[in-house]
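Problem: given the chain below (253 residues), write out its structure.
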Amino acid sequence: MSTAGAYLYGFTESSFEPTPGLRGLRGAPVTVITFADIAAVVSQHPVQRLMPARSNVEPHHRVVRQVSGERTLVPAAFGHVGDSDADILAVLRANHRDIRAEIDRLAQKCEMGIKVSWNVDNIFNFMVRTNRELRQVRDRVFRGREPSMNDKLQVGATFEATLAHERERLTALVLGAVKPVIRDVFHTPPRQEKTACELALLIDRARMAEFEEALRHMATLFDANFTIEYTGPWPPYSFVHLRLQLPERLASA
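Solution.
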């Protein structure tokens, strides 16, 4: 039988008081565990491995978003359950300086996401039309004969190199447009072939209007062969640098 533990949403200042009625996983009330000038935002939860099901992930992100809208929050990744409030308190005590520094570093900042994709039916054919070197290799290999496996591999390698070069160029184009108003950038490796770049950007909340203006300018740099999506503002998940040290009694447990 699982015991009652403390589910962790993140770290904030000790003066924070959760909004009455704020509920987390399993509908449990959200509370804080404080030490000195910092606090852990938690709710009671059985000590067990959590599956990333929507019924678990949605309340985690909802609590993180609401708290971040009220105070600076260093968000925790999904799934951290401490054995007890006392264990969370021990983590606060052992990591006080680093948690305090991270709260200060992320104060009044948020994360915005930008994704640029090729809006074309076939990315290979598009690259052939727009890149002379790839077109020449394709024509040499496929013109008037059945290509060998090595020939096909050469075309594939040239296509991958062309794709990588274009991704680098387009990423630089995006960052050049928004660089004056961002604090940091996190690159997400493309998961789909048609993704040109996917970035998380750390910005000051006070500069949102400037950021949106930079986005409008950036959009003018791309034609109809591209789609641009942006999301946010989000809590700065991608920019948390905190690496917690467990107290000796917990690390050896």
